[in-house]
Structures
1.
Amino acid sequence: MRVSLFIPCFVDQLTPRVGLATAQVLRDLGHDVEFREAQTCCGQPSYNSGHWDVARAGALRALDVFRGAEVVVGPSASCVAMMRKFYPELLAGHPRLAEAKDLAARTFEFGEFLVRKLGIEDVGAKLDAKVTYHDGCHGLRELGLREEPRRLLRAVRGLSLVESEEAETCCGFGGMFSVKFPMISTAMAQVKCDALVRSGADLVVSSDPSCLLQIGGYLTREGKAIRTLHLAEVLAAR
């Protein structure tokens, strides 16, 4: 399969290793991976802030960039949710609505693509670590993904998966939410991270790089030893 990578802003600017790991796993599975350099932000910050005209322009650009792509795969559930769930809303009544729906049907979150589209759970990864998984809000609530990442993690050799008591609790990032309401965001991060530490895990894994920045930032400032890794980074480990 020819896979077009959608690389979110956070990955491009702050965690490029996540994009590289995503490409590595897909290539190791025998797929042809491309990166279309004209891609930009999915438009979610503008959408969440109520600037729908700006977000709509971003959506139309994405339709142009990914025209003809066999499948589009992104290592961010929140950005994939924007493209799949909210592009058709943004373009309701627009002449290009059919294109938005077509792109939505061809766009997948990374772990979802492996399990639901390819039917793969074991990618040959090996990592000796005790891991707990954080369910990002968009992946869990918009895309309905819960078991898929856990199946992939359970297949990693040497990895022990433990559940946090607050696994499905929001980390407090929420994009613009953390900017507008920093004190509430920090309090939410504290609840989340205290539970993660209590799990006894060495690593916190998630499918959303933005959540990992929030969680990792709080844990670092609190001097906690537990580290963060994206799902793609775990699956690329050998």
2.
Amino acid sequence: MTGYGQGQQDAGDLRVTVELKTVNNRFADVRFRLPAELAGWETRVRRTVLARVRRGRVELSVRFERGNTAGASALNQEFLQTVLAAAQQLRDEHGIDGELDLGKIVTLPGLFRAESPVLGEGEEQREVLDRCLAIGLDALDADRLREGAALAVELLERLHTMHELAATMNARATTVPATVRDRLVERLDRLGVDLQLDPARVTQEAALLADRCDVTEELVRLAGHLDQATSLLGEPDGQPVGKRLDFLLQEIHRETNTVNSKSSDLELTRTALAMKAEAEKVREQVQNLE
């Protein structure tokens, strides 16, 4: 699921900003953009993020900004020494005369460099980072919850359609025994007018054929899976539902496939195929749902 969250806190003359962005992913993956001095903070923050984000790729960055910009730049001594040495070399080795002009020197690119703000070490500084992270995660959760609520509405509509298809399949399945018997009698009649049929034997064979085409158990399990999936979305228990829905969709797909393979009825087969198509659409969305 996608989302964005930001947390900011002040530490002395520094402002610390933690940004979190998430994009869809079947698994949890945390990627960092941290200043070098925060390398030791990575393991702890990874555990904190993974406790809140179970699915999705998270991009986390930390930025420092100095509140007082007056001392934000410093003279690049190494660069200045290089310029002076080059000027001296031109005089000594090439005989080029001339004086260095201060006004031109101070305009040289690279003569001044910005000092990177650094957050000091210690418990207070770690608390600042942790507060920023907590604020950012809360904002990220709120953003993802909004997306999840909109997605749940769409998924519930599709599950409602799947319930209707399951009801149609169930109603059609009840007509299969009679249809099988009629087909059997019709085929036997084609063998010859003088063929004497034993009604008991015809009924027995029809029962055997109907038993092979019986999908009652599959349809009962299918209805149970649909009810559970609807309950997870319509009555959330506060726990992640993505992987549980993913599993239920696999089972729905399995039962529908079995119905399709056992069915000898064209209308039942068509309805089963429509169920598979609808289940696949739901599963594509569920892959990224936490």
3.
Amino acid sequence: MYRNIKPYRLLIVEDNPGDYVLLEEYFRLSQLSIEKIHHAVNMAAVPALIKENIFDIALLDLTLPDSNGVDSVMTLTRLLPQTPVIVFSGLSTIEIAVESISMGAQDYLVKGEFDEKLLAKSVQYSIERKRSIERLRESNERYEFVNKATLDTIWEWDYLTKEGLWGEGIIKTFGYTEYNLKYDMNWLNEFIHPDDKEKVLKTIQYHIENGLKNWQEEYRFRCADGTYKEVFDRGYILFDKNKKPYRMIGAMTDLTEKKKLERELAEQQLKQQKLITEITIESQENERNDLGRELHDNINQILATVKMYLGMAKSGRGIPEDLINKSYEYVNDAMEEIRKLSHSLVAPSLGVIGLKEALLDLVEGTNLLNGLQVHLFIEEKYSEKNVDKNKELMFYRIVQEQLNNITKYAKAKEAVINIKTDNGKLFLSVADNGVGFDPSQKAKGIGLKNIDGRVEFFSGSMNIISAPGKGCTLEVWIPE
């Protein structure tokens, strides 16, 4: 007894009343679960029935008043593309049966040569065969869709036939034509760079020998014009029950632009690191030179004078009281000069006193010693933020460096320092009313190079606004 979970809805296209009654009787005897049988006496009656009903299977006589032979098969399969069709006819030639199957029918029965059991088998097998074909068709459609939609090159290899097939990516990405879609055992020599062939072959062979299904490799793939692109390839190996590979499928991604950008980024990072190192070395040398000059030209001279006065006292000749007072003043001056030097070289303890206090101390010292009036403005909103101490130290060093530049070269009477937040960035500006310069004509000195290197280290940006006689404004932005 044949049982199906859901009752079948049948369409029988038959013009002979006797044959139709016989089919109905066979279905009754088959004990198949039938919901309803619809009858069409010719092909013209089929569209109206299709419009009102959904059929699980259709049985078609090849000899109809308005349609005949395989034309009837073609017409019915076009009208019912999702429904399995069984052809039954009084003609028993193999040629007609094969042609009917090739035109879309699932089975062929000869009138008078089947009974209810054979009919039931044919119905169930035809339905299952149609489902399998539909699943295969949908799978192929998905494959084609992925092949067209993806930028990757889909490929497959058949170990039995020793042949492979490229997807459309071989045309879009590598410039080949549709005539190159098939490939054979020579693919290693034809498509892979000579220096990479051994690597790729060893990778695939290793996975096959160890029963590993997934492999991946990077190598250079030859384009139609003879150039090579860098690709990332990954494959999936299908093994039979004897652990022998019978098929392999995969996808190949073009990495050429990505690799190019990675190399450019690495080169840029190397250049930036070299620049930072160069600026650091130059800055260190500059600080050493400044320190040497200060020690030799200032502190050393002061101490030499004091030593001479003390030598006079030591010889017993005695020295006037005013020279003793002078010695005392000179020692104080030397101590003050040493304090200034150490203050400029040693980083302030920003973790203890904060950027604002450190800058106020720097501004006060500048105002006292250089005749330059410096004004500091720090936005209240900035003061409330918990800014990274390394970034605050960078701001301190930039202000220190720029005030040093202003003191040496700008001949300015006044300078203004501004610190605030702006659209997720920290902003610093140092402006003066000095002689200014033309930024397009004047190369960056060690001071500005040092500032530029510090800003780049924190992925920030720097801008200089100046003109002869218009003073200079240094602007710096860094991410919070």
4.
Amino acid sequence: MSQQGNWKIRDGFKIEKVVSDLFLPVNIAFVPNPKDEKGTPLFYVTELYGKIRVVTNEFKAFVFAENLLNYQPDFKIPGTGESGVMGIVVNDNGDVYASMLYKDNKYFKNKVVRFTTRDGLKADESETIIDDILSINAAHQVQALTIHQGKLYVNVGDGMIDPEVAQDDNDLRGKILRMNLDGSIPQDNPDPKSYVFAKGLRNPFGAAWRKSDRNLYISDNGPAVDDRIAKILPGENYGWPNSMRTNSLFVWWYTEAPAAIDFAGDQFGDDFKDHLFVALFGYAYEEGPAAKGKKIVEMVIDRNDNVVYLNEFLRYQGKGPASVCGLAFGPDGLYFTDLHGEVGFKKDKKEGGNVWRITKTSRRRKWQRSPITRRI
């Protein structure tokens, strides 16, 4: 490991800040086939309190959509300030989908909105494709969005108050939902009359599709113990609230708050291809290096669904509250958000978050195998 600024990173890699002055940047979604021309979109970033930013090839950030929340955030984190605009994904045709919280006359609820755009730089129209999913003004809400083979997959938390809903087939909380891109129910769902693709989840933050086996993988935050990584299969039950270990591939007994996840393609070469990279957020807003989270780990899952390798890839070593939240592989490397950056979460200093890029600098890979000590 080598020290680069406030980050300690695996030898043979470098880290650089590519976008700054963001307000609570959460998740990143790359354009499926970005163009090479200047001024064209490269990726989108959700900002928790009501914005979506678009970042161009030369790393210039613009407001794609704003004023997306119909309630006033209270800045209480951890707690009731954790909700807002969360998941994001871009379709091949350029449509942008985002998940977020909203409030009706009485309750907080989850929804997914589709934005259409002519140039990718500004949303022209928006349409809610699914809503009315009961939630609370805190965590355990609607989160990651992914698109696979023309279907939209939506991570929905259990809403925290009544975890038993994760087992209720008539309730969409604590589930992975599958729908057509217009929000209708696909006829080939496990139940052709239901959005539910899988159930028994608590707080599934991250999601990524693995090309080698064409399956969806998610990160799911446990209570005091048992954060996990799971492979999502149609119609499967993942156990919550009875257990966080049911049908899990890997469990952190010492909870580290896994956030976004993604599988490496060719960005880091053959030695890293198909490895899973996991953002571990840790304690919310703890200053300086922390025992929990504030890092990215690299995980190798074999063909038999065994985690055979787990090692630290990046760790925050600065004095601020920065931590890793969003994470996604782009054409040239691994990108991540640090949510609130060095300045922390302050009403008078709203734009402290950043997007960072990790690229490979050498062909030689320097690491030692770590024993898997927290297996199920």
